[in-house]
């Protein structure tokens, strides 16, 4: 894949993807839940962040048992979010501002409210029966095998009327589609076409590595590393429900549909080790997803040794595979990164995300330093948390709270007299967009400085990555080089002041802690971007 001048790169290689969780971005209708008109109103803010594309988490008709990841009609907008006209207006405004629009495509499962599943429930003779995955009970009448749902409990639910079980890797109200069935594939491909014809530029594809299951339906083996308190789903290994060869074939079909249109892309949600992850990009002759999401910055312990070693390995593996790298620090399923790595390290993390080689994906609110909002069990709404009271980390409400726009009641997210669907952060009067606009030293202005640097220094976008020796185990340093330009990033993961080696000193382009003019000393937790003179 090209890694020449940034002008030769595609938009999804060049730019930053910004994820919006529509329920929580901006409420326009005044019901305490965000909506499309709210998003459209805030698009100038998003464009002003210097990002390239917005990805909207699901906005389709849904009973919202998994907040939209349970789709009842793939080609209609849920009334909670607005109408198709509102959507068209959103796309138009985004394009006017130079932003691409990506939707969330949820192919693995529908809602049980979907007309297809309702027909399938009609019985074994229903023409839609085979659109889902049905099995007879085990000899003892129980589920066909030991497969588990990601949200806890069995992955099978019994249908009294027909005497069979159906498969669901998530809630019982999220039955798995049977991707082995050609008609299912054809119908789902038409969904992609429907949205691309409406101007959509790309898709984030939900749980793409789960599409197919092994046809033998064997029990999955026990995970010897599992410990109480870990999610129940992780108590098994998943050789039969994840990463099947058929899945690769289905993704190639999806890609062919995207390639019927100009310049579209898809990024796949895939939680797998690098050796299994990179094959999802396919090969030049047989391409698959444009970007297989790389979640390892979320999953690894936060220290210079492990992060640095991973970056080296992943960059080299992408190069060898000819695929474009990508990086993620947060999303709607993961605790806020500022909470995970700690406030002191948050700019080190943000700098890393935006200066490594590869496409960064940013989660809404991370640019102003939003943190997890504690949500007591009585106020919890996320099924992943409600169904697993023994796994305190499982709930995802803390990272899905309303965007903090200003210091007024409800932070400008919804009217003052309305209760937002999730509680606001207690500190919203200090941590909000309006307050940070006015403060040159804010997280928001630091984020903008980073995207500005990317715009001004093509080496940060298209340059090669090379590890540098910073002389200390807790400092991770690397160079991005393009032609004569060499931009160096130095990240102090530790709490000690460190001397910057002489060969890494140059013109400081950006520093995360503006409190010292010293060019040679790196402060504790400091991130610095330096331009080396040729
Ligand atoms: C993905 C989504 C998550 C959802 C699940 C089931 O992992 O990111 O939010 O609950 O799929 O659709």
From TrEMBL:
Q: Which intervals hold domain Glycosyl hydrolase family 13 catalytic?
A: 19-400
GO BP terms, alphabetized: oligosaccharide catabolic process
Q: Which domain of life is it from?
A: Bacteria
Q: Keyword Hydrolase on this protein? A: yes
Alphabetically sorted, this entry's keywords are: Glycosidase, Hydrolase
Hydrolase recorded as keyword: yes
A Pfam family reported for this protein in Swiss-Prot or TrEMBL? Alpha-amylase
What SUPFAM superfamilies does its record include? (Trans)glycosidases, Glycosyl hydrolase domain
Disordered: where is this region?
382-401
InterPro entries with a match to the protein in the record: GH, GH13_cat_dom, Glyco_hydro_b, O16G_dom_2
Give the GO molecular function terms. Answer: alpha-amylase activity
**What protein family is recorded?**
Belongs to the glycosyl hydrolase 13 family.
Q: By what name is this protein known?
A: Alpha-glucosidase
Native organism? Deinococcus reticulitermitis
């Amino acid at each position: 894949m090209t890694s020449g001048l940034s002008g030769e790169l595609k938009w999804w290689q060049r730019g930053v993807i910004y994820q919006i969780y529509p329920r929580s971005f901006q409420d326009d209708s005044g019901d305490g839940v965000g909506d499309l008109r709210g998003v459209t109103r805030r698009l100038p803010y998003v464009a002003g962040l210097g990002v390239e594309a917005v990805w909207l988490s699901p906005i389709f008709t849904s009973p919202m048992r998994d907040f939209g990841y349970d789709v009842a009609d793939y080609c209609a907008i849920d009334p909670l979010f607005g109408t198709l006209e509102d959507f068209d207006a959103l796309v138009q405004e985004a394009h006017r501002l130079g932003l691409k629009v990506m939707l969330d495509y949820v192919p693995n499962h529908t809602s049980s409210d979907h007309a297809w599943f309702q027909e399938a429930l009609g019985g074994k003779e229903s023409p839609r029966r085979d659109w889902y995955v049905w099995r007879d009970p085990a000899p003892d009448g129980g589920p066909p095998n030991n497969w588990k749902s990601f949200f806890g409990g069995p992955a099978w639910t019994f249908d009294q009327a027909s005497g069979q079980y159906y498969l669901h890797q998530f809630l019982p109200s999220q039955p798995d589609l049977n991707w082995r069935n050609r008609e299912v594939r054809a119908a789902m491909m038409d969904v992609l076409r429907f949205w691309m014809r409406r101007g959509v530029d790309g898709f984030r594809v939900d749980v793409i590595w789960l599409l197919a299951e092994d046809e033998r339906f064997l029990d999955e083996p026990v995970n010897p590393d599992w410990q109480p308190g870990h999610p129940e789903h992780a108590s098994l290994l998943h050789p039969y429900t994840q990463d099947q060869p058929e899945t690769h074939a289905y993704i190639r079909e999806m890609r062919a549909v995207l390639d019927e249109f100009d310049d579209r892309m898809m990024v796949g949600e895939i939680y797998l080790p690098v050796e299994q992850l990179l094959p999802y990009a396919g090969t030049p002759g047989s391409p698959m997803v444009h970007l297989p999401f790389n979640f390892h910055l979320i999953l690894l312990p936060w220290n210079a040794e492990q992060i640095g070693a991973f970056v080296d390995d992943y960059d080299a593996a992408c190069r060898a595979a000819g695929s474009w790298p990508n990086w993620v620090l947060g999303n709607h399923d993961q605790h806020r990164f500022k909470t995970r790595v700690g406030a002191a390290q948050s700019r080190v993390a943000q700098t890393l995300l935006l200066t490594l080689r590869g496409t960064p994906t940013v989660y809404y609110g991370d640019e102003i330093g939003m943190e997890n909002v504690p949500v007591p069990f009585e106020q919890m709404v996320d099924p992943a948390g409600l169904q697993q009271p023994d796994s305190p980390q499982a709930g995802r409400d803390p990272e899905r709270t309303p965007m903090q726009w200003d210091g007024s009641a409800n932070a400008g997210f919804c009217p003052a007299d309305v209760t937002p669907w999730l509680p606001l952060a207690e500190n919203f009067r200090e941590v909000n967009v309006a307050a940070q606009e006015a403060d040159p030293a804010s997280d928001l202005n630091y984020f903008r400085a980073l995207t500005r640097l990317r715009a001004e220094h093509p080496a940060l976008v298209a340059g090669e990555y090379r590890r540098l020796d910073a002389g200390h185990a807790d400092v991770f340093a690397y160079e991005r080089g393009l032609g004569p330009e060499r931009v160096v990033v130095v990240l102090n993961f530790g709490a000690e002041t460190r001397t910057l080696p002489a060969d890494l000193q140059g013109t400081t382009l950006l520093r995360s802690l503006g409190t010292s003019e010293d060019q040679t000393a790196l402060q504790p937790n400091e991130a610095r971007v330096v331009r080396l003179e040729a």
